[in-house]
Amino acid sequence: MLKKKAKNLLDEVETLIGRNAAFEGTIKTDKVMRIDGKVFGNIYAGGIIIGETAEITGDIEK
Description:
The protein is mainly β. It has one domain (4-61). It has 1 helix and 9 strands, in the order αβββββββββ.
């Protein structure tokens, strides 16, 4: 069962990189995003959920 804080974060997800998707470049958002696929580049997000299948090559900043 998810903790209340984690569940609230899941409710706020605005951007999703699915497990079969790959993204190359810079992602900038002030909202919460979830990554299950591959990202090659930097991520600037208000919050981030990194799934078990995610592969990230780059920096993550809040």
